[in-house]
Amino acid sequence: MSYIFQQARLLNPLEQLDLTGTVKVSNSGVIEEVFYGNEMPVPLPDDRVIDLRGKILVPGLFDMHCHFREPGQEYKETLESGAHAALAGGFSGVALMPNTKPVIDSPLGVAYIHHHSARLPVDIKVIGAMTAGSKGEHLAPFGQFSSSGVTAVSDDGSAIQNSQIMRLAFEYALNFDLLIIQHCEDRSLTIDAIMNEGLFSTKLGLKGIPDVSEAIMLNRDLLLMRYIEEHKLLDPTIRPRYHVAHISTKTALDLVRKAKRDGLQVTCEVTPHHFTLCDEDLFMAERKGNYIMKPPLSSRENREALLEGLADGTIDAIATDHAPHASHEKECPPDQASFGIIGLETSLGLTMTELVDKHVITMNRAIELLSVNPRAIMKLKPILFQPGENANFSIIDPEASWIVTSHSLKSKSSNTPFIDRSLKGKAIGIFHKGQLTESEQL
Q1: From 105, 156, 211, 321, active-site residue
Q2: What is the pLDDT of residues 18-34, one digit of tens each?
Q3: What is the value of pTM for the model shown?
Q4: Using an 8 Å Cβ cutoff, are 2 and 44 in contact?
Q5: Greatest CA span in the chain, whole angstroms?
Q6: CATH of domain 58-377
Q7: Which of 160, 316, 416, 426 could be cross-linked to 400 through a Cys-Cys bond (beta carbons 3.0 to 4.6 Å apart)?
Q8: Phi, psi of 325 (to 5 degrees)
């Protein structure tokens, strides 16, 4: 039996492909033929023909920044429930941050994730901790991580404050060409702080996080990168690679722009909640817990800067920072709420509603941000629509109108500010690992 994905809009920015066509895939999940225009194969009796007129077939979406909470906090999310949330959002792969309990700071933790996710329908990649226990004191075993298939390290949620440790992390990572992913936050400025510092934090009487905290840490790291580039003794072709997680401010974006102009290997991501919401939304919300995250929802001016960064190419990826929490951790006063929200199931819809439909970016650029670029940044195999390649597709209905509801979410948690929000554009299935998984009826 073969699968025939018929008359879809085939969209793959990596191949500069945007044409109507049909893809025939073998039962084992390998692309057999690609037809363009009205040309189509003659199906055999046992072939499954999926009519995709009006739908878009794209390289499988990949979220490079997720938290599935296993091991240690399975009451919030598990590998299995997180995978189902990813499927519902149209993602065929995710990368998991290491701040579980215990922290993934050794090959044993990596092996646990690999073993327990092997049979899940989405790819689950592991990001190793930069330091033991993510405490910022002693480096984790980067070499053993690399041998275990890890391509990136991070102490997400807790930036390394000690500059000497951060320098050593850069230099150690060079030996294995590991990507460093940094949660940029100068913690001396954010102790006990809850939301963005400004008019609305003052009105609410909540301690504010000054947005300069992000830029100070980022600037420190970029100075270290420049120093290491100039003084490194290793192979000159091996250069430090650095990725800014969940960037949220204009000042930080300007630093990334300059670093890119200077030739540093710097990339950055933005979350859907940061390009959609601002601190005024938190102020206006009746239940504020689901608007509490780090970095915090920033000013309207910073949100506009993020939209500009998406449009001009400064921002390389959209990542959800999917962070499940139980209801009691969010349905409480804002100064007691846990930081973070879920995002896998709303990411595509928010991207299409807030960015594509409003002509901030094109659909082609959206797929770069949601699929092509995250895989490239993580040094994963690119997805090509070519005979002989393994099929890895997300199927999108660009006209689907839907409302986010708590009962429809596949995640174990429902901590999102987007409940009851109307969105346009939805994933209706993925094909990966030789299997068609339908989140909506095809």
Answers
A1: 321
A2: 999 999 999 999 999 99
A3: 0.96
A4: yes
A5: 68
A6: 3.20.20.140
A7: 426
A8: -140, 150
